[in-house]
């Protein structure tokens, strides 16, 4: 059957088990979905289980479907690292040879000096921390001095937090752009992130005006291939930021998972453009995984699962839905870092042979390669398509 459009939804950080090299990253035993299922009483994902999620690996502890409604499998990451940019870029057909730089002790003096010279502002903090912790610790000093809070995490990020009444959002974005320019070569972090917040000491809270300033993808991705074929790539959520706008026709900003799902449903139902709808649902990672909030993560997963039928119901005959992730962020393990995990693959739609076991794919890039073949574009440089396993005859 002809495929006119693919809906690719990344459930950010929803990993399904430690990769063989997880020990190199300190992630032995990580299994974001499986460990949540074992820790959280009443955890259930009936719609994803019906599709075949539990059939991927019994260790997920969520049950299996006797007749999965989707093709199912998992993929391993070959690029070094376990961050958002690396995961999304590999899904789209890139194989990074070197990891993005990390700063477990904070940024070196030459980076901070360059930042202060171009922005004409002193940097507060300069250490790894969670976003809520850092504004609680340095927010009052920021209010007094007007200086931005600079911090990192166990990801390749240069984050800048500022109160919206002290450094307006547009000014914070410009500071991030200036930081992006100086963070090159050995200090080319995956993302510079604006982290606006509001409130008073003891009651600070981050706003939805976050913005990521990523590097340009190092090579063309499946997104570029789709655009070159005269079709559209519509980015929902932070996808536009992750790819720095490259290979994207239109971008739809969202505030949270629920809005991301709603905007995706609207696009599936109302938009007639052939091509790709590419959605990231970040709350799993940003709000729950990094804060080790098992209860919140479980609730967010069940909330997505509850809305999955709404997505499926508005799909047209020539649509294909792919659900996957970009890494893990197991909230049950010590620390708040991402985890090096397999990602799930569920492929659903009338053009797809349901119940097909895709096995273990050797790269996230197999997803991008498959999308390229589905949409009849030029192939990606990396990745092996599995479309021949699941495509129904025309």
Shape: globular
Radius of gyration: 20 Å
Please provide the ordered H/E string of secondary-structure elements.
EHHHEHHEHEEHEEEHEHEHEHHEEEHH
Helix content: 25-40%
Mean pLDDT: 96
The largest sheet, given as strand count, sense and whether it forms a barrel, is:
8 strands, mixed
Number of DSSP strands? 14
How many distinct helices?
Answer: 14
CATH architecture of the largest domain: 3-Layer(aba) Sandwich
In angstroms, what separates the terminal alpha carbons? 4 Å
Concise description?
The protein is of the alpha/beta class. The chain has 14 helices and 14 strands. The chain is globular, with a radius of gyration of 20 Å.
Provide a descriptive summary of the structure in words.
By secondary structure, the protein is an alpha/beta fold. The chain has 2 domains: 5-96 and 218-390, Alkaline Phosphatase, subunit A; 109-214, Alpha-Beta Plaits (2-Layer Sandwich). It is built from 14 helices and 14 strands. It has helices at 32-39, 46-51, 53-56, 84-91, 109-119, 131-145, 169-182, 222-228, 239-242, 257-270, 283-289, 294-313, 365-374, 387-390, and strands at 5-11, 71-75, 124-128, 149-152, 157-163, 191-198, 205-206, 211-214, 232-236, 250-252, 275-281, 319-324, 343-348, 357-361. Helix 1 (32-39) packs across helix 12 (294-313) and helix 5 (109-119) crosses helix 7 (169-182). It is globular, with a radius of gyration of 20 Å.
């Amino acid at each position: 059957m002809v495929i006119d459009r693919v809906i690719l939804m990344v459930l950010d950080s929803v990993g399904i088990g430690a990769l063989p090299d997880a020990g190199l990253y300190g992630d032995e035993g990580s299994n974001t979905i499986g460990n949540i299922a074992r820790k959280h009483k009443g955890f259930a994902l009936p719609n994803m289980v019906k599709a075949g999620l539990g059939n991927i690996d019994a260790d997920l502890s969520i049950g299996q479907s006797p007749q999965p409604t989707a093709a199912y499998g998992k993929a391993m990451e070959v690029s070094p690292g376990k961050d958002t940019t690396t995961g999304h870029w590999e899904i789209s057909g890139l194989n990074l040879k070197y990891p993005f730089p990390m700063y477990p002790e904070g940024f070196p003096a030459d980076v901070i000096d360059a930042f202060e010279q171009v922005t004409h502002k002193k940097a507060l903090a300069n250490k790894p921390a969670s976003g809520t912790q850092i504004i609680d610790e340095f927010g009052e000093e920021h209010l007094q001095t007007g200086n931005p809070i600079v911090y990192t995490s166990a990801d390749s990020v240069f984050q800048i937090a500022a109160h919206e009444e002290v450094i307006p959002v547009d000014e914070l974005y410009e500071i991030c752009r200036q930081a992006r320019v100086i963070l090159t070569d050995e200090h080319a972090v995956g993302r510079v992130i604006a982290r606006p917040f509001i409130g008073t000491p003891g009651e600070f809270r981050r706003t939805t005006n976050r913005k990521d300033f990523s590097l340009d993808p190092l090579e063309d991705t499946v997104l570029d291939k789709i655009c070159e074929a005269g079709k559209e790539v519509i980015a929902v959520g932070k996808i536009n930021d992750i790819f720095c706008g490259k290979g994207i026709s239109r971008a739809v900003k969202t505030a949270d998972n629920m809005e991301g799902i709603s905007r995706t449903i609207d696009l599936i139902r109302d938009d007639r453009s052939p091509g790709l709808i590419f959605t990231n649902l970040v709350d799993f990672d940003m709000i729950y995984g990094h804060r080790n909030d098992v209860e919140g993560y479980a609730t967010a997963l069940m909330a997505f699962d509850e809305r999955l039928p709404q997505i499926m119901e508005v799909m047209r005959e020539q649509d294909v839905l792919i659900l996957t992730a970009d890494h893990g962020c197991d909230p049950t393990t010590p620390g708040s870092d991402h985890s090096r995990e397999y990602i799930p693959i569920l492929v659903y739609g009338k053009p797809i042979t349901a119940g097909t076991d895709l096995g273990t794919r050797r790269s996230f890039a197999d997803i991008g390669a498959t999308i390229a073949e589905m949409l009849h574009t030029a192939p990606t440089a990396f990745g092996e398509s599995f479309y021949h396993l699941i495509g129904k005859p025309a």
